[in-house]
Fold this protein.
Amino acid sequence: EEKGLAAITLEAKVSGASGPLAFTVVVQDPLDPRLDLVWLVFSATESGMLRLDLDIPDQVLFKGSQLWLTLRFDRDAVLAGPRGRAPQLWLHFVPRENALPEALSRRKMLMKTFFSLLSEPRPWGGYRKQSREQFYASSPYAGQCPELFMTIDECYELDPSDDIVRQYREWVYLRNLDSLSDVPPPPPPPEGVPAWAWYPRLAWLETRRIAEWWLEERLVPTGEFGGRVGDDSDFYQQFTDLPFFEKGGVAAKMMDSAARMAELAEKENLRRGINIHTTDALHAYEEGINHLALMARWFHGDPIYLERCMESARNMEELTIVTKDGRRHFRNRERMGARDLERASEPAVDGGATPLMWHTALQVADYNRNPRAIKILREWADSWLKFMKPGQWASAVDVVSGKVIDSEKNRPLYGGYRSQASVFTWLYGLTKDKRYVEPFLYYYRRGQAPYPANGFLSDVYSLGGLTDLEQRTPEKLAAHNPAAALYMTGDVKPLVRGMIGNPRGWQAEISNLYDARRWPDMYTTTHQFTDRIFPSLLQHASISYLGGFCRRNKFNPTLAASWEGFGTDYAALVLVNQPDRVKVAVYSFAEAPMQGKMRVWALEHGHYKVAIGPDASDDNEMDRIEKTGTVELAKADAIDVALPPRAVTIVQIDQVERLESIFARPDLAIAAREVKIEGNALTGTVHNIGSANAAEVTVAVLDASGQVIASKSLGKLAAPVDLLPKRTSFSLRLPARAGRGWRLVVDPDRRIPEIYEGNNEVALDRLLAVNYAKGWDWSTFRRGRRNQAIRSLWRFAE
């Protein structure tokens, strides 16, 4: 019968050896004999009686379990029991319930270890109700599963009610179980809180909790979490949208850690913006090219990050080849790396994950419409369009001959984990050339949206690509995409339903709130490999709060808004996301009024009427206008929003006049980490990251009231239209005594219209304080001038 075992006693007389003896005692694991419970090394000064009391980890022995010990002496010896009999062995049994806590704890530790080690290949995904022997023989990775499966079964037999055991068991055996256990539903909205506000907030906070766990438990100073740059970069991509929900909090911590990993990737993984180690396209991209693009997105207008993307984009051109008939292709999807910049590889096949490699070029083009970046992107995309036709959507092409190697029958732009779709949709957003989404439009016009066209339906709609569809077609399409249903019909219920999920769902990741309830620990304490954290739940929240989503391998941006100043005490629902209008419902969970900002990202440059008012009837319409005005808006501009407590506020922005594009402008920028103060000398660098030359560049130091302390004219600064950085260094002389609130500003009079004004100044307080501390006379304490020392320290602290 099942029994609990707490300890083992061995008693024997040792003889036949003179002098000291060394020996090892091993107790094998009774449930997994390949493992040891204890491994102990002893020494004895001479022969004689030996008694060992071994306090093993408590075990629950199943019926039929076998237990044995191994003793190994360093030389020959004779063992005998008392009065010449065999050595004596006592098993100290305890009730099963007494042994269970320690036995289960050890077994769960083993389960966690085996699972974590296998979480990168995830071979259990192929376990589909066949015999285990067949499954184990199906692949080398599946052949590593017996230990994990056995341990899960043992944990379940020990305590089928243990929740963490249940999570592992249902995660690994998901497709092999007839049913899943019942889990409680997500909590319903409190009285007065709209469902559209309650459930997206739960989704965001759950994803935020997962991110915070990794930051607290796994982050190291380099910004890594344990998967090195190659896999940790994938982890960061899964949280692409997080910093657009809040400016501080968890998002700020993640941006800080990502910035540190960016420096590591620049130092160890990349050369001239390309992966150092030659590998296939997918893994080449993950060596830091993806992270370059993410940094430029998260730190909008940062000149250092954008210039790194420019360098990558320029050298990406070198990884491609233009064939005799004028097609541009990547040379070889299986061999990509910085080595190709010196010695190009022989052309082979373009396709698979190669679209991912355009991420940095697209990020540059998105910021400033760089003509060279757009030119090479279009040459590549136009080459692929030649091979696209209904029923034969090309996904791999022989570079030299132009022969289609692989194609998809009814999955348009599916190539490279949907990255083909991301590139073509983003390129349509940049150029407004519908040819790039024609593979989707072919189905949309018929009221169809096969995968992955269904996932990009709301993106194409938000970019204005479905305006010429027949009248009833949008209603047919709305059923394929919850966000599209909201934008096309105003119905928010599909979005909320998809966010809540199904209590009997069979998801392979955390993609809805029921998944989050079923598997609260599977993306945290189980320590899955970093590139296997898929909190797809965030995309539902992003669609609601931001009006679009980005994540790993789906990187084309379509968000309408981001939020600052509201912490986590709000919810938002983007109702309209079009280039000339935006409408958002915002709910405050706070007990007091809040002030914050809504930043726009998809609006064309123009004059807009902004109207803000309450919606007490929850019909997504303003009951009355409480604040209105006309403002000039362009990408990344912000408007102030006041939220009354426990109420819905509608923000509606409508274009009244379209203005010239901002992307034909220069963009002057400075970065705080390039500004140095040594004594009274301030040095730094001004960048132009726009698309037009800056005629006359001026830098100045201003005090807290805006008065000029020092300034210098730097002359002209060209635009980086050739994807080569355009920058100039400068030096300013500061007064001997610096003041609080000083800032360094480029173009202080705002004479130059720019793409983005938010990168034109750097606060100098911290730099001045550090510089002041370097020159402070710390011997003041020793001379006894205590009050002066305290005043000086107080000033430094301020």
